[in-house]
Batch of 4 targets.
Target 1
Amino acid sequence: MGRYVIRRLLQMIPVFIGTTFLIFVMVYAVGDPVNAMFGDRAPDPATAAELRREFNLDKPVWQQYLLYLSKIFTGDFGNAFNGRPVVELMADAFPITARLMIVALVIEMVVGIVLGVISGLRRGRTIDTTVLLLTLFVISVPTFVSGTLLQYFLGVRLQWTVPAVSPEAPFRELLVPGLVLALVSLAYVTRLTRTSIAENARADYIRTARAKGLPRRRVTLRHLLRTSLIPVVTFLGTDVGNLMAGALVTERIFNIKGVGYQLFQGIVLQNSPTVVGFVTILVIVFLLANLLVDLLYAVLDPRIRYA
């Protein structure tokens, strides 16, 4: 196991470098960040030249990337164009989005897996058809529509929750935004669990366990569900990064100043250091989540062993 983890960590290095380089080139090659800072006004040539020198924009892109890469390993992600360090923006935004992600992940895991198990064990019956129709409806509705409707009915009409989240973003205020963020993923988790449960329920090892006289609950929880969760865990591992990066719409609806808000502001204002810095952290989150998923395979299925 230890050698496998080390080998995977080493494999992450070229993936990280290649991904961040592509992001860096795409962000810095599109438009002129200095001109974007001044809006409709044309910047003074001397001022523009000084800003380009300060942010290393006067150098070739590959050289800018090497300078950026040498700094991030010391925790220096540079400064935003407003002069504030990008690390400070991350310290404010990532804890908020992490709490939102945890709420969404718990909702989609608990509700999605439970509905998937019930639907898979009763395949072809009324409850199975109902669950499939509901998940199809959820997948078909865009997030900005479901978010706006839930915000209006639960926050404005019924006043069960606040319409907008406060700057501190405590967990109690993130329940509805977390539900909105989790809805589409919840539908996919339900469908994946249902399909996996329905297929594995006909496997030989399940029939053997039932033939031995084991209780139905034990067969379902310890044998059927355990191996059926492998594709679900794979989806959840990739969804961790998607929930953090894809929270842009949800954060805009509920006025949450998290990662999505900072990325949106960075893209609109062409604040390249902010965009590249936040996306770099999201790349690391994706890589670590995939490593964790691979390690969980051995926990869920005893037949899987890593050398």
Target 2
Amino acid sequence: MVFNSKQPGIVFFLILLIWKAEAIAQNSNIISKEDLVYLKGITRAVLDSSRIRPAQLMPPGFGMNNTGGTLIRPGGRATYPAFWIRDYAMSLETGMVSAEEQRHMLKLTAATQCDQTWITKGGSMVPYGAIADHILVDNSMPVYFAGTYELEQQGTHAFGMFPPYCDQFYFIKMAYHYVKSTADLKMLNTEINGISLISRLETAFHVPPSDRKLHIVHSIENYRAVDFGFRDAIHITGDLLYPSLLKYEAALELSELFKKSGNTKKALKYKDIATAIKAAIAPKFADEDGMLRASTGKSAQRDVWGTALAVYMNLLPSSLANKASQVLAIAYKTGNLAYKGAIRHVMKTDDFSSTTSWEGAIPETTLNSYQNGAYWFTATGWVAYAISKTDKASARKLAQDYITELRLTDYRRGSGFAGPLECFHPPSYTRGPVYLTSVSCPYIVFNKMMINE
């Protein structure tokens, strides 16, 4: 239809409708387009500063990158001078890692998969099929436990009697994302040290001990492992929420990879495992208020990160997801959840005691430091998404708090600035400058939300 000057009223009305529609759409987003552009830019910058290019020198004592390709470490500047599997895998959905870079890091991770069960000097066991916690860049040697860069010193009770459970599932994510973004199905049958990649993925999937029927990841004190590397200083036992969420996702990814490979039997097998895990999450871990507990054993507090991620992954019935959303919204508004847009692992009201946030933590991790009560940006996107289900205004405010703090501390402003930090707590505790998942994880969530609006 063509409008002319004789129809001013209709033209004005349509312009008004378009303006209102745009205003409503903008108001429905919990982050503005301008702020998302900024977040994308700083994410790209931090990721680039996290790259360790071939022959690049590391801080003194760590040599240079001799792996033959680019690696991505957990952050820039002097942050973590090695290749960490989980931080990298958690950042893949930014779409900012090239196919060549992905292929190199995927093959390196596969090549360092444990090929023989062995016991460390500290009494911990590295089972066949385990994936490294981090890989040294000068000699490509795997370190399977947190807390050290020394091959001979790895594996003590403080950081678990088995390697962290999460890395096996993040290895699968690396392969899935590579195949999805490149359509290179041949990679799955590529032999690495004589074993095909798809076989290595399947072996890794079955490393973490799990319930045989429900497929929920499980641990006991004598065989304890870190459930998720972002709380490797915390002791958690029993049925474990967070690695079970990761296992659910990995099962779906394996199912898809087998489907693409033409193996319908195994595709169905792993889809059934994912279905079983999804059905078990709420009955096993949910409180009446919708919040999920980190475990059924030690450190069984209501898990902010795990609950928010489960809501984001659509693993809870809508009634429970909405209840959890309301709990998180109230905790945000009362100051028990967040600070400057960063998120605690456990709400202040759920601290185990006056001296520790989690029930179990290594002695060096005092209350309100590191994973024992400090605030992290890594989970901000998941929490904002969960809150937005029932309280968009609070979700929007949390996102704005986050972006404001990023802008104020942005390391690109000069040497006196170190943001985004890994974690922090007032008045003066800080850790980890120019930290990757502090921007990559929220960007992935906020970008998806913007696309889906």
Target 3
Amino acid sequence: MRINDLLSQGKRFISLEFFPPKEKDAWPSFFYEAGKLSILNPSFVSVTYGAGGSTQANTLELVTRFSRDLGLNPMAHLTCVGASEDSLRSFLDGLREAGVDNVLALRGDPPQGQPDFKPENAAFQYASDLTGFIHEAYPDLCIGVAGYPETHPQAESADKDLDYLKLKVDKGGSVIITQLFFNNDHYFRFVERCRARGIDKPIIPGVLPILNLASVKRILSLCGATIPAEYLARLEAANDQGGAGAVRELGVEFAREQCRDLIARGAPGVHLYTLNKAQACLDIVNGLEL
């Protein structure tokens, strides 16, 4: 089902994001974790897409199996940097054949190990190019786009970043999913600025539980989000005193309170970055009124 149609019902919801294992021998444990989370009855589940399309086939197969075997409503990530129109059409045709109604249109990162990568296809330089292409060629798909509460790290300014987001919406984006953040005020200020700019699509906050301190620092270095100083100090103290288990406990507690506050203050729902860890997500969602 199209996500924008689901959101029009006005019910608070949880949605989940998974990343496909590169090796198929890891799939049984991956589907075990995903199956445990089906009890949450998520409104939709998204599946990431590797740099340069490196997990394209896995993404397509996983969204198909999510729908067919687990009865979940999938959204496939799709990146365009370095992609040809033929490869994009092949992937989107595969979604259509699998009965998948939703796609998240992203620019994407260069292939790993190629920092000086130059896209050969000038038609697909930016996420807005991909959004416009999908909207014109596959009008039945619900197109999600990414938003950055703390501004995309490569944007010239916060205002320019909003200009790019509005362009994606104007070209066919019907749902906005945010990059992770750890201060909910960033999200609500972002929503206000979007509305003032005439961006009227649903804006779903993305929440990442911190389960490993070193891992999240690497993620933050790539996406431009920040951790409040007080929270970071607590995480580092937990890591020093109790190790990984203490960090996980604190991260789950913080994410649960972050989700509760988002819902209480009027967010339409929460998009939870699962890290493919079912129990942590179940612990976070437990007690939320959705």
Target 4
Amino acid sequence: MRILSVAEKEGQEFLARLINRFQEFPAHFEEGVREILSAVKEKGDEALISYTRKFDCPDFEKDDLLVPQEEIELAYQQIERDILSAINLAISNVRSFHEKQKEKSWIEARENGAVVGQLVRPVERAGLYVPGGTGGETPLISTVIMGAVPAKVAGVSELIMVSPPQKNGKLHPALLVAAKEAGVDRIYRIGSAWAIAALAYGTETIPKVDVICGPGNIYVTLAKKILAGEVGIDMIAGPSEILIIADEAANPAWLAADLLSQAEHDALATAVMLTTSKKLAEKTAKEIKKQLKKLPRKEIAVKALDNFGAILLVNDLLQAANIANSIAPEHLELCVEEPWSLLGKIKHAGAVFLGHFTPEAVGDYIAGANHVLPTMGCARYAQALGVQVFQKRLSVVGYSQEALTEEKEAVVRLAEKEGLFAHANAVRIRFEK
């Protein structure tokens, strides 16, 4: 793990690269995804089955698309009791957090008889994409919970989940149980870009949805990007990121573990620490080297650290906070003596984790805040997946004769200034005798 100073040229160059880390997608990937989308739009289920046989399950049939209720019920017998307990605790915490995000409808009546307001309504049907997770061997339970719970809290009538099948055509039992507990209504065994296309366009078997959420590989991400507008999406997500601000009060072993928790995600992940202490930086670097030896995903983590990993020395915590705001990280840990004092300086981050006993991992699984977060600096303007992704606001306007009489001239003047004379006439004609 390199140790750099923001006061020196090498540190400044690394920081500039980090701030400007937004990644464009290679053109050839987009061409391939567009072909998949076109095939699904034209051929429906036939295309889904063809792609699934080619990439996931050779013996896949149309009847295998929908997971039957009996398979979901059987899944409860195939998972450990402690996993079910953990699933339910996570769902409870996530539901409690997201209940507080719900907006209320409102109506305002003015003295002249005009009425304006806002109705908050959920989308009718949403789609949740859940990646396969090492060929189905490592079920991404938390992804199910983080996508399904806010959708159901928002009031979505029908929630459709899609996930790529294993070679035997099945989904991991833990995914099925998590989906059932979180309120998913139907589960289909399809993955990658063709799953996103199916949700966006609809096929003979899979219904068209209004919003798609959930992470995925480059093909899934590109499909969402291309289809955005035709269907609602949560966000365009990039590789995982963690930024830690630490002072002398921090534990280097804990810091190293937290940095590695994101580095193991992806070879393109970002794992950076800002600290005022050179001594802490050196101890943390040694701990990273030590802990890497025992890490099953060591090769991935090493590549990530080589690419976007560093410990940067800063003058003080205020400078660290300003740098953090420039980076706008997905995850920001404040491992300092007084995290609440530093929190007031933070403007841009997907999620902030306070103090020495709040590793980012608790946010991934159990705290309740959503772990689907903006990356690549998008936290400057974007936010975590939440209830608002599954709701829309309908404006309500009602004018009485008195209200329109009072304001008609303003409407006419503005409309005619814009050259929209039919607009002006739509008001004026109501007062002709």
